[in-house]
Amino acid sequence: MWRQILVDADRSGRHISRQQYISTVKRIAVGLQRFGVADQDGVGLLSENDIYNYVLGDGVVAAGAVYSGIPTFVKQAELATAIQAAGFKWLFVAPEFLHLALATVKSLGLPPSMVIIFDPPGLDPYHGTQASLSHIIDGVDEDSFRNGNEGKDSTTREAFRFFTSGSTGPVKAAIISHRASALRVDFIAAMPLLDKPFLLVKGMFHVSGALVHMRACLGGYSVCVTKAKDAATVIDKIHSQSIGSTMITPRLMESMAVVLNSTDGARKPLDSLWQISFVGAPCRQETVDMFRKIIPDKARVNTGYGTTEVPGLSSCVIDDNWVTGCVGQVSPSTAVKIVDFDTLKEVPPGASGEVCARSAAAFSGYYNNAAATEKAFLPGEPGWFRTGDKGAMDPESGVLTLLGRFKEIFKVRYEEVVPAEVESVLLQNGDITDALVTSTPARDDDKDRECMAYIVRRDGAQLTAQQVVDFVASKLAAHKVPTGGVLFCDEIPRGTMGKPLKSELDKVVPLPESARFLAPPNE
């Protein structure tokens, strides 16, 4: 397996060696230039995970263009927004997304010729009327390759445009320059070599997918790429392919813990595993504790913190002293400070505030969005990115702890409510499998708010809305209790990183047992 840097975990015998990678990137670059892709054109890819996703991406960049991966959960309106936000001139799509892509570009008044089928080597070639990757690289000689970026300013030249999550606001495309990308490569190259393969589960459109791909191409490890999203299949992949490490979302970790706890001989499938990391969203303490008991004694659980704009801010190995929100010490390549959210002045040591970060590998700004770029940085202090996260740093240990999102925090009767805290308590109830906390205008004062919760119940659970209110009231202060409403639903809309899609909440259909404006327990 070490001769292969990228392995298709879903299709036996399909893999890419380092030499094949280099050759294919060059052929793609030459083919794209001949096809008509111009310097710094925006090129997007809409595809589920595949070993060739970032081979295409690197070919795009080598041709002098700019690459973006697109979240695969998009609907037509969301794809249209993505096309506009990143300024795509060309759109590669896997065959199953062709109808969506053509309908979307038509709605935008764009030519259907901008849509290209993504049919990489090892999959069935496309024979329809659209242009395709297989056609573009057919007969291309890698010796014709000339680096489209040579002699250009690496600090201003764009390599990637990564989409932000868009969970609380409009989607934006974060620009990563060639200089920033090279620094990220240097950071990855300094990591130790691993002797067992890595399983890539998370969507490759995310910035973490690019970092994992970089590490594979540098020889850091062999990466097995899968489309699998369900816990049982991921567990099977770890076992059958002797996976040594992987990175998953907290949502998937919770699902895997449930599956492993309900299976006899649960330790056996994960015998090869020595490291598992969860990133992207908070994970509740009970899940982490349960997962650590299930995996082999030699294995360790890691967590970390980073953003699309500034990745790799911090990391830590979880031990018995870990608490939810702790993300470890800040990386030596990154500077962090905590500022007051309103005054933007640095807070006293140990006090909470907005986490701000500065790194040479940070993004340059948001594509074609000067207003959002200006708001993203501290005024008068170049390079200090405002994460929007509430956190505190221990003045002695330097350990950073995240306390919530400022955009999500709201006040009830002048008292602050952090949704993540209430959600953590709700998930301690065995009848609740998922929860999302938000706010609604107060019943007696439209200038005030009340806490409201979306709840997914365990199959067969008879939990009532009032019982949910009583449960939270027994553990938290009155202003944190969801008296504004308990909305039972079949599913809470989430992206592939596990983050809630707030823009989709108005489409959630409440089940009949839901209730609004409930009485607190003492009334």
UniProtKB/TrEMBL annotation:
GO terms for molecular function: CoA-ligase activity. Residues 421-499 form the AMP-binding enzyme C-terminal domain. Keywords: Ligase. Gene3D superfamilies: 3.30.300.30, N-terminal domain of ligase-like. Residues 7-367 form the AMP-dependent synthetase/ligase domain. Pfam families: AMP-binding, AMP-binding_C. One of its GO terms (biological process) is secondary metabolic process. It comes from the Eukaryota. Belongs to the ATP-dependent AMP-binding enzyme family. This is AMP-dependent synthetase/ligase. It comes from Beauveria brongniartii RCEF 3172.
